[in-house]
């Protein structure tokens, strides 16, 4: 119930009913109640620790606690400024993904890295890969960003020529008795090209260390040497784990120590631990509320899940030239139970990516989705567009609103029923600018993306061996 304005949700529902009848269209029945206070970021008291020591094993599965990256940064900044920076950098991240996809497909699998580098927008250096977990590496606990769109796991290392600020001490290879550098011309060194999109860099003097470079869409990067060490995922050891020891790194990664690659290449965490977990992992991404936490589950034992709806599976679309990514076939989108009509949905290949924030749709699909959403949100005062979001409302007079549901339908009758907190994006803390949290791509032939904002409070299951991906509703909590 609404506290400050108890009649508003009822009045809004009656308004929708009246407008539907007046316009000669059917009643929209699928709605969700959105509390405008429920998913605004609340500042922590003091500086929270990035490290989580709550990981556990249960029924053969390894469960790592996940938190939103902002929980780790602990910075007090203006709400609107933070939201704007997040969207600007998210757009840069998407541009890099689209550039990589185009170049990789056009070149038959070998990318020209010079074409894929996207300049830093407006000089802003705020990383958009939003969720973090704690792993053990060489006997040290390290907090890393989780990204399904990347393969190489890396951390900042001593001695560091150029490093961004992180909360924990830098990884010290000399303090680990199990650390081993990878030499050039070794199979492990050659494997890095598919994971980083760049050829390994080798010195003229042999034997030399295998050097890597990974560029990200916000202008940040990591450069260093390839190495092996013991990895611990909770209490589960992964011996001789191949990772990047970053000596030159740029970007504000929320105070995290590096990045954990959950992509599909041979060097990803999933591939390197496949003997232990069978190539299966899942996550439940929490909201941005202070203290909210989700889970990254390594292994396919569904008994440890807390899903409230059955898991529905769709097949992963294979693309040999883009084998690192997770592609799905999107067959439909419904707003408030109404199927959106867009001819290009028949060619619905879409990428699911934990490192992209806002979902992107082809322009023709987005326009059809936007039109149906506006029809069902008619009667609410409009607000100006914000960055990449062009469908906004002034909800400052409401404590709660009834909004239409958003569902993504995939091949095999799988369905992603977007959580209520993933439908609208609160730009201003007084709710005077709240926007539909889906954006349009620039061109019709670009690949759509399911971002992490629409994946919140879902159990998303990746099964590499069976080449399928599942969705189920789950209120994310780590207990």
Automatic annotation (TrEMBL):
**Which is an annotated Pfam family here?**
TAXi_C
Indicate whether Translocase appears among the record's keywords. Answer: no
Locate the active site.
Answer: 147, 353
Task: Give the residue range of the signal peptide.
Answer: 1-27
Q: Which UniProt keywords apply?
A: Signal
| Classification via InterPro entries | Aspartic_peptidase_A1, Aspartic_peptidase_AS, CND41-like, PEPTIDASE_A1, TAXi_C, TAXi_N
| Name of protein | Peptidase A1 domain-containing protein
Peptidase A1 domain mapped to chain residues:
131-472
Which family does the entry's similarity section mention?
Answer: Belongs to the peptidase A1 family.
PROSITE patterns, A to Z: ASP_PROTEASE, PEPTIDASE_A1
GO annotation, biological process: proteolysis
Q: What are the recorded GO MF terms, alphabetically? A: aspartic-type endopeptidase activity
């Amino acid at each position: 119930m609404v506290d400050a304005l108890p009649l508003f949700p009822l009045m809004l529902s009656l308004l929708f009913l009246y407008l539907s009848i007046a316009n000669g269209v059917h009643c929209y029945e699928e709605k969700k109640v959105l509390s405008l206070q429920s998913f605004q970021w609340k500042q922590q008291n003091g500086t929270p620790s990035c490290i989580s020591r709550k990981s556990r094993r249960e029924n053969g599965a390894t469960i790592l606690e996940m938190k939103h990256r902002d929980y780790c940064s602990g910075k007090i900044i203006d709400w609107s400024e933070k939201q704007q920076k997040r969207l600007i950098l998210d757009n840069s991240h998407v541009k890099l993904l689209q550039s990589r996809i185009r170049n990789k497909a056009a070149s038959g699998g070998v990318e020209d890295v010079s074409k894929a580098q996207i300049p830093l927008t407006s000089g802003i250096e705020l990383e958009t890969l939003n969720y973090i977990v704690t792993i053990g590496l060489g006997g040290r606990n390290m907090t890393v960003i989780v990204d399904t769109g990347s393969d190489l796991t890396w951390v900042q290392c001593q001695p560091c020529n150029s490093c961004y600020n992180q909360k924990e001490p830098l990884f010290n290879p000399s303090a680990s008795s199990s650390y081993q550098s990878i030499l050039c011309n070794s199979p492990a060194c050659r494997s890095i090209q598919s994971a980083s999109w760049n050829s390994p860099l080798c010195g003229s003097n042999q034997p030399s260390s295998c050097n890597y470079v990974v560029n990200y869409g916000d202008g940040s990067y990591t450069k260093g040497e390839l190495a092996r060490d013991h990895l611990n995922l909770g209490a589960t050891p992964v011996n001789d784990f191949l990772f990047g020891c970053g000596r030159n790194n740029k970007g504000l990664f929320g105070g995290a120590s590096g990045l954990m690659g959950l992509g599909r290449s041979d060097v990803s965490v999933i591939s390197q631990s496949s003997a232990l977990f069978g190539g299966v992992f899942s996550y439940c991404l929490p909201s941005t509320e202070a203290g909210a936490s989700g889970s990254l589950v390594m292994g396919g034992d569904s008994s440890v899940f807390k899903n409230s709806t059955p898991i529905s599976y769709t097949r992963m679309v294979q693309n040999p030239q883009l084998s690192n990514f997770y592609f799905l076939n999107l067959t439909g989108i419904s707003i408030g139970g109404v199927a959106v009509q867009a001819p290009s949905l028949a060619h619905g290949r879409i990428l699911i990516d934990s490192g992209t924030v806002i979902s992107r749709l082809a322009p023709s699909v987005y326009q059809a989705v936007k039109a149906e959403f506006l029809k069902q949100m008619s009667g609410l005062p409009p607000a100006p567009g914000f960055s990449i979001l062009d469908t906004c409302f002034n909800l400052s007079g409401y404590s709660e609103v009834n909004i239409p549901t958003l569902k993504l339908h995939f091949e095999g009758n799988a369905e992603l029923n977007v959580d209520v907190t993933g439908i609208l994006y609160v730009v201003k803390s007084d709710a005077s600018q709240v926007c539909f949290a889906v954006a349009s791509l620039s061109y019709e032939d670009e690949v759509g993306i399911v971002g992490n904002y629409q994946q919140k409070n879902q159990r998303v299951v990746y099964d590499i061996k069976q080449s399928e991906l599942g969705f189920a509703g789950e209120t994310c909590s780590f207990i």
